[in-house]
């Protein structure tokens, strides 16, 4: 059986499974549509949360970012997991106790302000829509590479599948599909990693293999990697820049990712689906268990893929001659077709020279070796996708990677779409436009908003605005600077009032968005930026990706000061805060619906 | 003790647990993983140093432990203060 048929079979089987679950898990009420009837087991919810959370960026891009970023890229690992500690300790149990359906609903009730609720809806929609574009384009790439359909056809198929289970089943359908998608994506991610770890170190567990000996030379793997890439003019893999600003940027970037993670509405609403407050606590732990399986593996995948790549190009060591272009392995040929890997023979010797040609200290060495610029460009995103081919694994593993990449993109897209559509139907339509809408009417409105959100996401996926690649910074920045602080203050302080919350959210939001635009260009239009987005060129010496943490601090400070200067919160709000802090009575809160 | 005092005692115990957990959370990630890494560079781990291990593995493992210990301790606190769910 050829690879293409195999890909079709495996991806087709996974899709059939998702559709089957969609038909089985139809939603009959708004409670089922928004919160899966609050009947999801904490372990099941943990698994669904893991799939919801791990996007195309986690599955496809992160290992590549680590491979080429080395130690500095640890921010992604700590940031995207550390946020779950904040969720478990500071938000999830209390928001579950509150017992409503959306994040803006909590903000509107706690701060007794329709304005606060609408500002929260705006933050939620901007953060989620920018995030979903990346998922749709990710799904399109996976389709194009593995199923050899056009990007457009691929996207439409993906959107059709999400449409089937998200519109029919709402949160209930999405939850159980995400469980299946988690199993597909974690299997696809770990199998090639285990084989590569065995090949390089003889250790089956990749996180252990990363710190073991490289069997080919007997040195520790990371020491070997440091050595060979320095021979090619790159910075050592494990190197840390210990001067003040780089350290500050890494600190703030990690912090922004952590509080952004905890403030992303599509993650928070997953904790509304469990039966009890204590389940919300356990469930956050289980979510991190399932996430950690991938996040502990990713740094091993990154380092090993980088070493494998160097060894493929320089089979006799980085100080010897590289391989000839005509003798390159098949996987390089396969990825050249996609354009994600390119070779240009700059010095015309027929050999593949791959080194850091931007390192001024290395120019002399390169000239002495007759090199006239690095001849290979490798896109970050291909490392995970090409891993099974690099390791020479059988065809079904390659097919599984295709299904895994699609599962990661589609599961996250569905979670985001639910967050968007419930904000529209529950917060805008029922909350602001037509409060008297019937349960049936609201359910219909929820389904129509979902269909509209999918259409919008598909349109944006087909016509990605120029800023598609920049949007992650925007989504995390907004979640960190606007939503997380008011959610936390709403629970931990009964003194923060309506004016404080609105002023805080707007300050955090505007500061962060303006700072990002000043560095990335207004509305991401190239050339309209006033500052370069590097540590040296930026306004405060802080890169725009790390600014969300500063926005969050401003949000806290402004909310506190404005609340101090205006009237105290009414007694019923103090009572609400008290009731949210105590688990007893969570069942009763749910029964209101 | 009145209901209000009981609720206050429960909340104080919870805050104490949260503060301790977040101190550990800060030390392993922002501390060992970033700011304190140069101080730990003498401790070799698999071809690199302890700070690198914390940044790419250790902090995640500690996060996991923190959440489960918090859930376990809080469920015990709920019962001790009589505020657990029916």
TrEMBL record, chain A:
The portions of this protein that span the membrane are 6-25, 77-95, 116-134, 154-171, 183-205, 250-272, 284-305, 396-424, 444-462, 468-488, 500-518, 538-562
Q: Where is the signal peptide?
A: none
Where is it located? Membrane
Gene Ontology CC terms: plasma membrane
Q: For this UniProt record, give its keywords in alphabetical order, as a comma-separated list.
A: Cell membrane, Ion transport, Membrane, Sodium, Sodium transport, Symport, Transmembrane, Transmembrane helix, Transport
**GO terms for MF:** symporter activity
InterPro entries with a match to the protein in the record: Na/Glc_symporter_sf (IPR038377), Na/solute_symporter (IPR001734), Na/solute_symporter_CS (IPR018212), Na/solute_symporter_VC_2705 (IPR019899), Sodium:Solute_Symporter (IPR050277)
An example of a Pfam family matching this protein is SSF
Protein's membrane topology: Multi-pass membrane protein
GO BP of this protein: carboxylic acid transport; sodium ion transport
What PANTHER family does the database record attribute to this sequence?
NA(+):SOLUTE SYMPORTER (SSF FAMILY) (PTHR48086:SF5), SODIUM/PROLINE SYMPORTER-RELATED (PTHR48086)
Similarity-based family: Belongs to the sodium:solute symporter (SSF) (TC 2.A.21) family.
Entry protein name: Cation acetate symporter
- What species is given as this protein's source? Rhodovulum strictum
Automatic annotation (TrEMBL), chain B:
Q: Name one Pfam family in it.
A: DUF4212
Alphabetized UniProt keyword annotations: Membrane, Transmembrane, Transmembrane helix
Q: What is this protein called?
A: DUF4212 domain-containing protein
NCBIfam families xref list: Na_symport_sm
Q: Which domain of life is it from?
A: Bacteria
List residues of the Sodium symporter small subunit domain.
9-84
Q: Which residues cross the membrane?
A: 15-40, 52-72
């Amino acid at each position: 059986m050829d690879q293409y048929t195999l890909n079709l079979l495996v991806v087709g089987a996974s899709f059939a499974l998702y559709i089957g679950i969609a038909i089985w898990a139809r939603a009959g009420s708004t409670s089922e549509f928004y919160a899966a009837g609050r009947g999801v087991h904490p372990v099941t919810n943990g698994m669904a949360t893991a799939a919801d959370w791990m996007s195309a960026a986690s599955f496809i891009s992160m290992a590549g970012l680590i491979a080429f970023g080395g130690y500095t890229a640890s921010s992604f690992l700590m940031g995207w997991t550390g946020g779950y500690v904040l969720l478990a300790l500071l938000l999830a149990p209390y928001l579950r106790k509150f017992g409503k359906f959306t994040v803006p609903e909590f903000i509107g009730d706690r701060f007794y302000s329709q304005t606060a609720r609408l500002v929260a809806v705006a933050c939620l929609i901007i953060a989620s829509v920018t995030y979903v574009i990346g998922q749709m384009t990710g799904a399109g790439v996976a389709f194009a590479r593995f199923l050899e359909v056009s990007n457009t056809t691929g996207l439409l198929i993906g959107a059709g599948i999400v449409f089937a289970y998200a519109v029919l089943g709402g949160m209930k359908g999405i939850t159980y599909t995400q469980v299946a998608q988690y199993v597909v994506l974690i299997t696809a991610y770990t199998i090639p990693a285990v084989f590569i770890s065995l090949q390089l170190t003889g250790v089956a567990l990749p996180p252990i293999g990363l710190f073991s000996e490289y069997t080919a030379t007997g040195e520790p793997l990371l020491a070997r990697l440091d050595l060979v890439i320095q021979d090619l003019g790159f910075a050592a893999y494990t190197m840390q820049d210990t001067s003040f600003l780089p350290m500050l940027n890494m600190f703030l970037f990690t912090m922004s990712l952590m509080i952004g993670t905890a403030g992303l509405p599509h993650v928070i609403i997953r904790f509304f689906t469990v039966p009890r407050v204590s389940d919300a606590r356990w469930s956050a732990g289980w979510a991190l268990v399932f996430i950690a399986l991938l996040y502990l593996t990713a740094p091993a995948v990154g380092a090993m893929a980088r070493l494998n790549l160097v060894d493929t190009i320089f089979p006799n060591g980085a100080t010897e001659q590289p391989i000839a272009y005509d003798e390159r392995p098949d996987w390089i040929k396969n990825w050249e077709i996609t354009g994600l890997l390119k070779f240009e023979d700059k010095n015309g010797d027929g050999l593949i020279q791959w080194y850091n040609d931007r390192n001024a200290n290395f120019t002399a060495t390169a000239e002495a070796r007759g090199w006239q610029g690095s001849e290979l460009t490798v896109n970050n995103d291909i490392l995970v996708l090409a891993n099974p081919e690099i390791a020479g694994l059988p065809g079904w593993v390659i097919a599984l990677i295709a299904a895994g990449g699609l599962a990661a993109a589609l599961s996250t897209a569905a979670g985001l779409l639910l967050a968007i559509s419930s904000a529209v139907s529950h917060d805008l339509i029922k909350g602001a436009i037509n409060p008297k809408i019937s349960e049936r009417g609201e359910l219909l409105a929820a389904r129509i908003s979902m269909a509209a959100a999918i259409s919008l996401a598909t349109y944006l996926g087909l016509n990605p605005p120029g800023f598609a690649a920049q949007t992650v910074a925007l989504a995390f920045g907004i979640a960190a600077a606007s939503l997380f602080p008011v959610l936390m203050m709403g629970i931990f302080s009964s003194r923060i009032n309506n004016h404080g919350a609105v002023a805080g959210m707007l300050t955090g939001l505007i500061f962060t968005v303006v700072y990002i635009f000043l560095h990335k260009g207004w509305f991401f239009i190239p050339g309209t930026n006033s500052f370069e987005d590097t540590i040296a060129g930026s306004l405060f010496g802080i890169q725009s990706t790390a600014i969300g943490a500063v926005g969050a601090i401003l949000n806290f400070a402004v909310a506190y000061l404005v609340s101090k200067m205006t009237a105290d919160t009414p007694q019923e709000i103090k009572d609400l805060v008290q009731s949210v802090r105590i688990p007893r009575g969570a069942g009763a809160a749910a029964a209101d619906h | 003790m009145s209901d209000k005092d009981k609720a206050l005692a429960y909340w104080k115990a919870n805050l104490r647990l949260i503060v301790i957990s977040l101190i550990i959370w800060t030390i392993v990630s922002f501390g060992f993983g970033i700011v304190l890494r140069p101080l730990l560079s003498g401790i070799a781990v698999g071809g690199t140093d302890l700070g690198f291990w914390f940044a790419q593995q250790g902090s995640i493992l500690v996060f996991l432990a923190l959440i489960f210990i918090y859930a376990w301790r809080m469920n015990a606190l709920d019962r001790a203060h009589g505020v657990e769910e029916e």
